[in-house]
Amino acid sequence: MTGNNFTEVTFLILSGFANHPETDSQLNTPMYFFLRNLAFIDIFHSSAVTTKALGNFQSKQKTISFIGCFQMCFVVGLVCSECFLLGSMAYGLCVAICNPLLCSVITSQKVCNCLGAMPYTVGFTSSLMSICVISSLAFGDTSINHLFCDTTALLALSCVDTFSTEVEIFVLAGFTLLSSLFIIIITYIVNVSAILKIKSVSGRQKTFSTCASQLMGVTIFYGSLVFTYLQPDNTPSLTQAQVASVFYTAVIPMLNPLIYILRNKYVKSALLRAIQRRHSA
User: Fold this and answer.
1) How confident is the model over 144-168, as pLDDT tens digits?
2) What CATH architecture does domain 26-265 belong to?
Protein backbone atom coordinates (compact mmCIF):
# COMPACT_ATOMS: atom_id res chain seq x y z
CA MET A 1 0.00 0.00 0.00
CA THR A 2 1.33 3.44 -0.91
CA GLY A 3 0.28 6.98 0.02
CA ASN A 4 -0.84 8.36 3.42
CA ASN A 5 2.68 7.77 4.81
CA PHE A 6 2.50 4.04 4.06
CA THR A 7 5.09 2.19 1.98
CA GLU A 8 4.77 -1.15 0.29
CA VAL A 9 6.43 -3.94 2.31
CA THR A 10 8.14 -6.49 0.10
CA PHE A 11 10.16 -8.40 2.68
CA LEU A 12 10.53 -8.94 6.44
CA ILE A 13 13.68 -9.42 8.50
CA LEU A 14 13.97 -12.50 10.71
CA SER A 15 16.40 -11.37 13.39
CA GLY A 16 16.11 -14.52 15.50
CA PHE A 17 19.43 -15.05 17.29
CA ALA A 18 21.20 -12.50 15.12
CA ASN A 19 21.84 -10.33 18.18
CA HIS A 20 23.84 -13.17 19.74
CA PRO A 21 25.73 -14.88 16.90
CA GLU A 22 28.64 -15.98 19.06
CA THR A 23 29.12 -19.63 19.91
CA ASP A 24 30.42 -20.87 23.20
CA SER A 25 34.11 -21.73 22.73
CA GLN A 26 33.71 -24.90 24.81
CA LEU A 27 31.34 -26.25 22.16
CA ASN A 28 33.82 -25.74 19.30
CA THR A 29 35.48 -29.11 19.86
CA PRO A 30 35.66 -32.26 17.71
CA MET A 31 33.14 -34.07 19.92
CA TYR A 32 30.45 -31.46 19.27
CA PHE A 33 31.25 -31.58 15.56
CA PHE A 34 30.33 -35.26 15.64
CA LEU A 35 27.28 -34.57 17.80
CA ARG A 36 25.96 -32.14 15.19
CA ASN A 37 26.26 -34.87 12.57
CA LEU A 38 24.57 -37.35 14.91
CA ALA A 39 21.67 -34.92 15.42
CA PHE A 40 21.39 -34.48 11.64
CA ILE A 41 21.17 -38.25 11.09
CA ASP A 42 18.69 -38.81 13.94
CA ILE A 43 16.36 -36.04 12.76
CA PHE A 44 16.24 -37.26 9.17
CA HIS A 45 15.91 -40.99 9.62
CA SER A 46 13.46 -40.80 12.53
CA SER A 47 11.22 -38.25 10.80
CA ALA A 48 11.25 -40.26 7.56
CA VAL A 49 9.86 -43.30 9.38
CA THR A 50 7.62 -41.82 12.07
CA THR A 51 5.86 -39.32 9.79
CA LYS A 52 4.89 -42.09 7.35
CA ALA A 53 3.86 -44.39 10.21
CA LEU A 54 1.72 -41.70 11.85
CA GLY A 55 0.19 -40.87 8.48
CA ASN A 56 -0.80 -44.51 8.03
CA PHE A 57 -2.44 -44.55 11.45
CA GLN A 58 -4.74 -41.71 10.38
CA SER A 59 -5.32 -42.80 6.78
CA LYS A 60 -7.52 -45.58 5.43
CA GLN A 61 -5.29 -45.96 2.37
CA LYS A 62 -2.04 -47.30 3.75
CA THR A 63 -0.06 -47.39 0.51
CA ILE A 64 3.34 -46.34 -0.72
CA SER A 65 4.61 -46.38 -4.28
CA PHE A 66 7.13 -49.03 -5.30
CA ILE A 67 9.70 -46.34 -6.07
CA GLY A 68 8.84 -44.57 -2.83
CA CYS A 69 9.40 -47.80 -0.96
CA PHE A 70 12.96 -48.07 -2.22
CA GLN A 71 13.46 -44.39 -1.44
CA MET A 72 12.80 -45.37 2.16
CA CYS A 73 16.07 -47.33 1.94
CA PHE A 74 17.55 -43.87 2.43
CA VAL A 75 16.76 -44.61 6.07
CA VAL A 76 19.00 -47.68 5.93
CA GLY A 77 21.82 -45.52 4.57
CA LEU A 78 21.45 -43.10 7.47
CA VAL A 79 21.38 -45.93 10.00
CA CYS A 80 24.56 -47.41 8.48
CA SER A 81 26.12 -43.95 8.56
CA GLU A 82 25.26 -43.63 12.25
CA CYS A 83 27.10 -46.88 12.96
CA PHE A 84 30.37 -45.50 11.62
CA LEU A 85 29.71 -42.04 13.05
CA LEU A 86 29.51 -43.60 16.51
CA GLY A 87 32.91 -45.12 15.72
CA SER A 88 34.27 -41.68 14.84
CA MET A 89 32.82 -40.29 18.07
CA ALA A 90 34.42 -43.10 20.05
CA TYR A 91 37.79 -42.28 18.46
CA GLY A 92 37.35 -38.57 19.27
CA LEU A 93 36.54 -39.42 22.87
CA CYS A 94 39.56 -41.73 23.03
CA VAL A 95 41.87 -38.94 21.86
CA ALA A 96 40.33 -36.50 24.37
CA ILE A 97 40.90 -38.93 27.25
CA CYS A 98 44.33 -40.28 26.31
CA ASN A 99 45.88 -37.09 24.88
CA PRO A 100 43.88 -34.12 26.18
CA LEU A 101 46.70 -31.63 25.55
CA LEU A 102 47.16 -32.76 21.94
CA CYS A 103 43.48 -33.30 21.21
CA SER A 104 43.11 -30.18 19.04
CA VAL A 105 46.23 -31.15 17.06
CA ILE A 106 45.40 -34.83 16.51
CA THR A 107 41.74 -34.17 15.69
CA SER A 108 42.20 -31.07 13.56
CA GLN A 109 39.38 -29.68 11.49
CA LYS A 110 40.67 -31.53 8.44
CA VAL A 111 40.75 -34.82 10.34
CA CYS A 112 37.24 -34.17 11.72
CA ASN A 113 35.94 -33.49 8.22
CA CYS A 114 37.37 -36.80 7.03
CA LEU A 115 35.97 -38.68 10.03
CA GLY A 116 32.63 -36.96 9.46
CA ALA A 117 32.46 -37.71 5.71
CA MET A 118 33.63 -41.32 5.99
CA PRO A 119 30.47 -42.62 7.77
CA TYR A 120 28.16 -41.20 5.08
CA THR A 121 30.32 -42.61 2.27
CA VAL A 122 30.55 -46.12 3.70
CA GLY A 123 26.98 -46.11 5.03
CA PHE A 124 25.28 -45.11 1.78
CA THR A 125 27.55 -47.39 -0.27
CA SER A 126 26.41 -50.33 1.86
CA SER A 127 22.78 -49.20 1.57
CA LEU A 128 23.02 -48.84 -2.23
CA MET A 129 24.42 -52.36 -2.52
CA SER A 130 21.49 -53.66 -0.44
CA ILE A 131 19.00 -51.87 -2.70
CA CYS A 132 20.60 -53.36 -5.81
CA VAL A 133 20.39 -56.86 -4.33
CA ILE A 134 16.75 -56.57 -3.24
CA SER A 135 15.54 -54.82 -6.41
CA SER A 136 16.49 -57.92 -8.42
CA LEU A 137 13.84 -60.01 -6.59
CA ALA A 138 10.34 -60.79 -7.82
CA PHE A 139 7.57 -59.86 -5.40
CA GLY A 140 4.33 -61.84 -5.13
CA ASP A 141 2.64 -60.01 -2.25
CA THR A 142 1.97 -56.29 -1.77
CA SER A 143 1.24 -56.12 1.97
CA ILE A 144 4.27 -55.04 4.03
CA ASN A 145 4.01 -56.13 7.64
CA HIS A 146 6.34 -53.42 8.88
CA LEU A 147 6.59 -49.72 9.75
CA PHE A 148 8.64 -48.95 6.64
CA CYS A 149 10.20 -50.71 3.64
CA ASP A 150 12.95 -52.42 5.57
CA THR A 151 15.03 -55.17 4.01
CA THR A 152 13.53 -57.81 6.32
CA ALA A 153 10.01 -56.86 5.24
CA LEU A 154 10.85 -56.76 1.52
CA LEU A 155 12.50 -60.18 1.67
CA ALA A 156 9.30 -61.60 3.15
CA LEU A 157 7.32 -60.37 0.10
CA SER A 158 9.48 -62.21 -2.42
CA CYS A 159 7.90 -65.10 -4.32
CA VAL A 160 11.24 -66.68 -5.19
CA ASP A 161 13.95 -68.34 -3.16
CA THR A 162 15.73 -65.60 -1.19
CA PHE A 163 18.46 -67.68 0.43
CA SER A 164 21.31 -66.23 -1.62
CA THR A 165 19.88 -62.72 -1.19
CA GLU A 166 19.60 -63.20 2.56
CA VAL A 167 23.22 -64.32 2.68
CA GLU A 168 24.31 -61.22 0.75
CA ILE A 169 22.26 -58.93 3.04
CA PHE A 170 23.65 -60.78 6.05
CA VAL A 171 27.22 -60.20 4.85
CA LEU A 172 26.60 -56.50 4.13
CA ALA A 173 24.88 -55.96 7.48
CA GLY A 174 27.56 -57.96 9.26
CA PHE A 175 30.35 -55.90 7.72
CA THR A 176 28.63 -52.62 8.60
CA LEU A 177 27.74 -53.55 12.16
CA LEU A 178 30.74 -55.62 13.19
CA SER A 179 33.44 -53.44 11.62
CA SER A 180 32.07 -50.26 13.23
CA LEU A 181 31.43 -52.11 16.49
CA PHE A 182 35.02 -53.41 16.46
CA ILE A 183 36.31 -49.83 16.26
CA ILE A 184 34.09 -48.81 19.18
CA ILE A 185 35.10 -51.77 21.35
CA ILE A 186 38.82 -51.17 20.78
CA THR A 187 38.54 -47.46 21.58
CA TYR A 188 36.55 -48.09 24.75
CA ILE A 189 39.09 -50.66 25.92
CA VAL A 190 41.77 -48.00 25.48
CA ASN A 191 39.49 -45.48 27.27
CA VAL A 192 38.99 -47.72 30.29
CA SER A 193 42.72 -48.39 30.48
CA ALA A 194 43.42 -44.64 30.40
CA ILE A 195 40.73 -43.92 33.01
CA LEU A 196 42.21 -46.43 35.44
CA LYS A 197 45.51 -44.54 35.24
CA ILE A 198 43.92 -41.27 36.39
CA LYS A 199 45.09 -40.62 39.95
CA SER A 200 42.23 -38.35 40.98
CA VAL A 201 39.14 -40.25 42.16
CA SER A 202 36.82 -37.45 41.09
CA GLY A 203 38.57 -37.31 37.71
CA ARG A 204 38.10 -41.04 37.20
CA GLN A 205 34.43 -40.84 38.15
CA LYS A 206 33.77 -37.86 35.87
CA THR A 207 35.50 -39.43 32.86
CA PHE A 208 33.97 -42.85 33.46
CA SER A 209 30.49 -41.28 33.71
CA THR A 210 30.94 -39.74 30.26
CA CYS A 211 32.08 -43.04 28.77
CA ALA A 212 29.35 -45.04 30.52
CA SER A 213 26.52 -42.82 29.27
CA GLN A 214 27.73 -42.99 25.67
CA LEU A 215 28.34 -46.72 25.95
CA MET A 216 24.73 -47.16 27.09
CA GLY A 217 23.45 -45.44 23.95
CA VAL A 218 25.76 -47.50 21.74
CA THR A 219 24.64 -50.74 23.42
CA ILE A 220 20.94 -50.05 22.87
CA PHE A 221 21.50 -48.95 19.28
CA TYR A 222 23.68 -51.89 18.27
CA GLY A 223 21.60 -54.36 20.25
CA SER A 224 18.47 -53.53 18.25
CA LEU A 225 20.37 -53.61 14.94
CA VAL A 226 22.08 -56.94 15.63
CA PHE A 227 18.76 -58.47 16.70
CA THR A 228 17.13 -57.25 13.46
CA TYR A 229 19.74 -57.87 10.77
CA LEU A 230 22.30 -60.42 11.92
CA GLN A 231 19.96 -63.38 11.50
CA PRO A 232 20.36 -65.63 8.46
CA ASP A 233 16.62 -66.27 8.30
CA ASN A 234 14.66 -63.07 8.86
CA THR A 235 11.12 -64.20 8.00
CA PRO A 236 10.10 -65.97 11.25
CA SER A 237 11.24 -63.01 13.37
CA LEU A 238 9.44 -60.28 11.39
CA THR A 239 7.29 -59.22 14.36
CA GLN A 240 10.34 -58.95 16.61
CA ALA A 241 12.08 -56.99 13.85
CA GLN A 242 9.23 -54.45 13.94
CA VAL A 243 9.74 -53.91 17.66
CA ALA A 244 13.50 -53.62 17.24
CA SER A 245 13.08 -51.14 14.38
CA VAL A 246 11.05 -48.88 16.67
CA PHE A 247 14.08 -48.65 18.96
CA TYR A 248 16.63 -47.59 16.35
CA THR A 249 14.26 -45.34 14.37
CA ALA A 250 12.29 -43.64 17.18
CA VAL A 251 13.48 -44.49 20.69
CA ILE A 252 17.23 -44.07 20.14
CA PRO A 253 16.89 -40.60 18.49
CA MET A 254 14.87 -39.49 21.53
CA LEU A 255 17.41 -40.90 23.97
CA ASN A 256 20.49 -39.47 22.24
CA PRO A 257 19.83 -35.86 23.36
CA LEU A 258 19.52 -37.12 26.95
CA ILE A 259 22.67 -39.24 26.68
CA TYR A 260 24.97 -36.89 24.79
CA ILE A 261 23.58 -33.37 25.30
CA LEU A 262 21.41 -32.73 28.35
CA ARG A 263 23.81 -34.54 30.70
CA ASN A 264 26.69 -32.43 29.42
CA LYS A 265 27.53 -29.56 31.76
CA TYR A 266 29.08 -27.45 28.98
CA VAL A 267 25.92 -27.62 26.89
CA LYS A 268 23.73 -26.83 29.87
CA SER A 269 25.87 -23.88 30.94
CA ALA A 270 26.01 -22.53 27.38
CA LEU A 271 22.24 -22.84 27.05
CA LEU A 272 21.73 -21.11 30.41
CA ARG A 273 24.01 -18.23 29.42
CA ALA A 274 22.19 -17.85 26.09
CA ILE A 275 18.83 -17.67 27.88
CA GLN A 276 20.16 -15.15 30.39
CA ARG A 277 21.55 -12.95 27.60
CA ARG A 278 18.26 -13.17 25.79
CA HIS A 279 16.29 -12.02 28.83
CA SER A 280 18.75 -9.21 29.64
CA ALA A 281 18.69 -7.84 26.08
Assistant:
1) 777 777 777 788 788 888 888 888 8
2) Up-down Bundle (1.20)
